[in-house]
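I have been asked to look over a protein record a colleague put together. This is what I was given:
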Amino acid sequence: MYVAVKGGEAAIANAHSLLADRRRGDRSVPALRLDQIVEQLALGVDRVMSEGSLYDRELAALAIVQARGDMIEAIFLVRAYRTTLPRFGYTKPIDTGAMLVERRVSATYKDLPGGQLLGPTFDYTHRLLDPELAAGAGVAEPLRRETEAQAMPRVSAILAREGLIEPDGQMPQDHVPGDITREPLEFPMARDIRLQALSRGDEGFLLALGYSTQRGYARNHPFVGEIRIGEVELELDVPELPFAAPLGTVRVTECQMVNQFKGSAKAPPQFTRGYGLVFGQSERKAMAMALCDRALRASELGEDIIAAAQDEEFVISHSDNVQATGFVEHLKLPHYVDFQAELDLVRRMRAEYEARENPARVDEKREAAE
């Protein structure tokens, strides 16, 4: 570290002070409150919670402020804090079929049981800057909801009734779900472990990989069976109680992709699934996750692995933005000894090259040196 340099500790302390000063910015501008970030930068908060693996809006907002808006640094802060928290147990699997849906759209069926709910979305907005927002204008009063959130059946159930889509869930009955926050990753991995890694993987990286599958690098151009956003209830089995204790609700985004599959010797022609589930409202991340999930099922479905998005080790090992950041940013730390060794090696190789290519010039240099 730079502490080894003369005056390094003082320099680092001053760098921290300067960072705090720049974080605060112009003192004539009111400081941001966490509730403002939670309420008005909600999608950024959702991303930090999802990729930080911790559902706490206020802590995510604090991390965004501390990181000066650097989302990956904020995610890093949340993950570091998460390691200090006690573990009381595991909740029961959430039932997204019973989700209280606020937004739910499908690209496969126009008329759905329960209907299509557009909800809050950028999909139909004009991408034009709104100068009124700069003046603090907007919706003066909260909008009154015409209908309350409601539970809706899954779109995939329609295809399942005809046997046209693979069954949901193929894990053995005695399978114990893994936990990547407590156990090191090992390849090959079960799908539940892979989905955990994808869920907290970097949105941009997964988006690029998902896009690549649509452009021919994995032959994956699916239909959005359904995207739904809403509240799901968390329940915990308590040994002293004869029933699962409700802990509260969390908001999640779920995406099921419907992919074509020509069938095999063991399975008839049918649609297959790609799945994505993340904290908060993050449709782009859930869709990218579902695309990558389906691509990574190539071996399971007997498909040839021909693209990067189908390579489990490549995708999972490089999708974690905290690990990627650490490995990239460590390059700016002192590497003086390593570089000097490389420098000496290149000088020797350069001298040997010149001796072979121009021996007369080498002799002249030697004579001049003598």
